[in-house]
Design goal:
Length: 366
């Protein structure tokens, strides 16, 4: 079986659903169910024995040892992390705990399991660490995209903690010979994305007639990949990647934030016209004619990285992976998904999440 961490979060749950749809191999899913973890994402697997869920923390060394001993996984796919840059600015400690200490504890438990395997099983074992392009820092307009040899230069507590975890993973290959793989992916979007991140937040706010908060001048660039393409890239690396190597995953889709917000407004005008839904602008009390009226520029995020861009040629060339979705097809699917899953949105918008959003946007503390 494979052992997934963080499989109740955004990317992890998409991975678990894709795995179970395309594979018979059992999957053990360990997740602490923080504010970002949601078992409703995995409702489709409720009566599927292939998926076994464990509620627990990757920092819990005893639990990890017990899980490795009991389930003897052939591979680990490690998603569990604190993942939101804005939260890492206001409360960085959880990022060091989970992303650095948690990854270390998981590596230690995996090493102990791996070292006791018979030689053939030892060679087949894999530890795949899911990381981000943010470890490479920021690019100017004319810089070439990040390659696997771009030096690390993380700028937020989030990206610094992910960079630290990448270094630990690398060291387990060089020091112990453990068969590790690392993927560094660009910004994902798609179903089950928690509405604190740009794309789902804009969809959810627009439908509620709330302001669409664009940080700074809105000209920051991100490179967007549909989440199922990220998951297929991870599976490909797990299957055929060379141990000790890192693979950048991206979809060649650089977009300025303000362009993303306008694209979402246009799609929503078409698929959920504000006049049909009776959407009222929460700031003015007037009916909304077009969602773009709600765009509001707010104080910039401190240390805001200007541009990310992934050069994905290595995974394309060496492993034959390519994304299936274009940005246009992926973003339309995503908007459709949010429109058809309003109950999921209502369920994740619980009290504590609403409190955080209110505090974050009202204090101007981006
Ligand atoms: P997410 O925040 O949606 O989900 C994280 C999951 O990990 C949640 O289910 C949460 O409950 C769980 N978790 C957190 N701390 C834990 C702990 N201590 N023990 C066990 N479980 C814990 O994040 P995501 O967007 O799905 O990202 C998954 C991974 O992919 C992360 O490692 C992230 O750095 C990486 N990544 C994300 C993106 C992106 O655009 N979202 C892009 C590239 C890489
Ligand atoms: P986000 O989804 O938080 O991902 P990341 O910071 O990991 O790239 O943000 C994507 C971009 O959108 C980033 O440049 C910050 C910007 N942004 C806004 O302008 N307004 C918002 O309300 C949010 C959440 C993000």
């Amino acid at each position: 079986m494979i052992f997934v961490t963080g499989g109740a979060g955004f990317i992890g749950s998409n991975f678990v659903l894709q795995w179970c749809a395309q594979n018979d191999e059992p999957l053990l899913n360990l997740d602490a169910l923080t504010y970002a973890g949601n078992l409703a994402n995995l409702r489709a697997l409720a009566s599927n024995d292939q998926h076994r869920f464990i509620h627990g923390n990757i920092c819990d060394a005893e639990l990890l040892t017990q899980l490795f001993n009991e389930h003897k996984p052939r591979a680990v796919v490690h998603f569990a992390a604190e993942s939101h840059v804005d939260r890492s600015i206001s409360s960085p400690e959880a990022f060091v705990q989970t992303n650095v200490l948690g990854t270390f504890r998981l590596l230690e438990a995996a090493r102990s399991h791996w070292q006791n395997l018979p030689e053939d099983k030892k060679a087949e074992f894999r530890f795949l660490h899911v990381s981000t392009d943010e470890v490479y820092g920021t690019l100017t307009q004319n810089d070439p995209a990040f390659t696997e040899s771009t030096p690390y230069a993380p700028n937020s507590p989030y990206s610094a903690s992910k960079a630290a975890s990448d270094h630990l993973v690398r060291s387990y290959f060089h020091t112990y010979g453990m068969p590790v793989l690392t993927t560094n992916c660009s910004n994902n979007y798609g179903p089950y994305h928690f509405p604190e991140k740009l794309i789902p937040l804009m969809i959810v706010n627009a439908l509620a007639g709330k302001a669409l908060p664009v940080y700074g001048d809105g000209q920051q660039i991100r490179d967007w990949l549909y989440v199922e393409d990220h998951c297929s890239g991870i599976r490909r690396v797990l299957e055929a990647g060379t141990c000790g190597e890192t693979y950048n995953i991206g979809g060649w889709n650089e977009k300025a934030n303000i362009d993303i917000v306008h694209t979402l407004c246009t799609l929503l005008d078409e698929l959920a016209p504000p006049s049909d839904r009776g959407v009222i602008n929460q700031q003015t009390g007037q009916p909304v004619k077009q969602y773009a009226e709600l765009i509001t520029y707010v104080t910039d995020r401190p240390g805001h990285d200007r541009r990310y861009a992934i050069d994905a040629r290595k995974i394309e060339r060496e492993l034959g992976w390519k994304p299936a979705e274009t940005f246009e097809t992926g973003i339309r699917k995503t908007v459709d998904w949010y429109l058809n899953n309003q109950e999921w949105v209502r369920n994740v918008m619980d009290g504590s999440y609403r409190d955080w959003v209110a505090k974050h946007y009202e204090s101007g503390n981006k």
